[in-house]
Design goal:
Blueprint lengths: L11 H8 L24 H20 L35 E6 L5 H12 L3 E6 L11 H10 L4 E6 L4 H14 L5 H4 L2 E7 L5 H14 L12 E5 L6 H12 L3 E5 L15 E3 L2 H5 L4 E4 L4 H7 L8 E2 L5 E2 L6 H8 L3 H5 L6 E3 L12 H4 L6 H20 L2
Parallel strand pairs: 1-2, 1-3, 3-4, 5-6, 5-8, 6-7, 8-11
Antiparallel strand pairs: 9-10
Helix pairs in contact: 2-14, 3-14, 4-5, 7-8, 7-14
Bound molecules: aspartic acid (ASP).
Aspartic acid binds next to α8.
Length: 395
């Protein structure tokens, strides 16, 4: 449900900027951070500042006809068609002359492309560095790689890494080098944006999930999520998306229930401020949204955690950790299928961060249904990443 805001309720500056087809600049007084490393620890005002900025970009994109605010729910739409999130024409020149470096040490489809689109939408240039074909495959540390790219003069580093805490490590490495006088002031000003570090956080995914929930329930004015309940279903323990969702959603007032088998959803997660349940069917009838997670076999395999050894197989046939008894049993107990969706509230939505393993955590008919917000989430990813880049680079 796209929310309409009457012009009288918005600042005349914002309305004027929108009339001119340019992105308005909402107040950034609640933002003074150079980096976005996670959502945990951000205040409600800080979260709202990013989300309100994203909302302004969303409106500006709609005004120039490059991005629609009307919900689209069909899977498999042509992502390169006009009006899709892959349109990279700048809507503002605010980051003109700035360079954003994408440092992806782990596979990514949506996040890497989305950050590139977001940077270009604001007039920035982008540089891509993947682990294959670079010195990362020669054993260089993440800190050294990042310091070298920073020394070439980028303004922001968007980093994905398999190790939890990698982005904090880079941030501290650059700070130390600056302290020692080994890099100049401009390198010390490089913003680090976490694009997913191990099991820790994926803050822009958390923000786009919040944005999608807020849009569906008409909360885009306030981003006040009180009264809404989200279930995060699946491999929560290994999920950086879940940790960012829990942090951001609970700070904005939502109730979050993590659901899955005990091996994937340990009771200890409650220390993050959510509830834990192992009984999906009793939870589903009470929630306003479900965020469905993939079983992240690769993270179990590398963790050395109990149960991580073995020859579990994911739906695609790749080897993975032995974290569940069988994929079939998991799907029986926890897959979101049409029968389960039928028991949910009439307006409740289904989210998924992607990539989907169809038939495991989500059946294809549900993934492609009207309730599925998967592509809407991807569209929102661009505007929240624009907001994150803009605020951190202008901190
Ligand atoms: N794309 C998300 C992530 O990077 C979710 C997943 O991989 O399953 O964590």
């Amino acid at each position: 449900v796209a929310q309409r805001v009457s012009p009288s309720r918005r600042s005349s500056k914002a309305a004027g900027a929108e009339r001119a087809g340019t992105a308005p600049a909402p107040s950034s007084s609640s933002w003074s951070r150079q980096h976005l490393l996670g959502l945990r620890g951000l205040s409600g005002d800080e979260l709202r500042t990013i989300l309100v900025r994203a909302r302004a970009y969303d409106r500006a994109m709609a005004r120039v006809g490059s991005h629609t605010t009307a919900p689209t729910t069909t899977m498999g739409a042509d992502a390169s068609a006009p009006g899709s999130a892959l349109d990279t024409r700048p809507i503002s020149n605010e980051l003109r002359g700035r360079t954003v470096g994408n440092l992806f040490f782990e596979d990514s489809t949506r996040t890497r492309v989305s950050f590139s689109v977001a940077a270009r939408r604001l007039g920035a240039q982008t540089v891509d560095l993947a682990s294959v074909g670079s010195s990362i495959s020669k054993g260089e540390t993440v800190g050294d790689t990042a310091a070298n790219i920073a020394a070439m003069g980028v303004d922001a580093l968007v980093i994905r890494h398999r190790s939890s805490g990698a982005c904090h490590l880079v941030e501290r490495t650059l700070a130390h080098l600056g302290h020692d006088g080994r890099v100049g002031a401009s390198q010390q000003r490089v913003s680090i944006i976490n694009a997913g570090d191990g099991r820790h956080e994926h803050p822009t995914q958390g923000l786009l999930d919040i944005y999608t929930l807020a849009e569906r329930y008409g909360r885009l004015d306030s981003f006040d999520l009180r009264g809404l309940t989200l279930a995060i279903v699946g491999d929560v323990g290994a999920s950086r998306v879940a940790r960012s969702d829990i942090a951001g959603m609970t700070t904005l007032g939502a109730r979050v229930i993590c659901v899955g088998p005990p091996g994937l959803v340990p009771k200890a997660l409650e220390t993050l401020g959510c509830e834990v349940s192992h009984d999906l069917d009793s939870v589903l009838t009470r929630v306003d949204a479900v965020n469905v997670l993939r079983i992240q076999f690769e993270r179990h395999e590398s963790s050395g955690a109990p149960g991580a050894a073995g020859a579990g197989t994911n739906a695609g046939g790749a080897k993975g950790g032995n974290v569940i008894a069988s994929v079939r049993e998991y799907a029986e107990l926890y897959a979101i299928n049409a029968q389960r969706v039928a028991r949910m509230k009439r307006d409740a939505i289904i989210m998924h961060p992607g990539p989907i393993n169809r038939g495991v955590e989500l059946t294809a008919d549900v993934a492609d249904s009207q309730r599925s917000m998967v592509l809407r989430q991807v569209t929102h990813g661009v505007v929240v990443r624009m907001a994150a880049l803009s605020l951190c680079l202008g901190h």
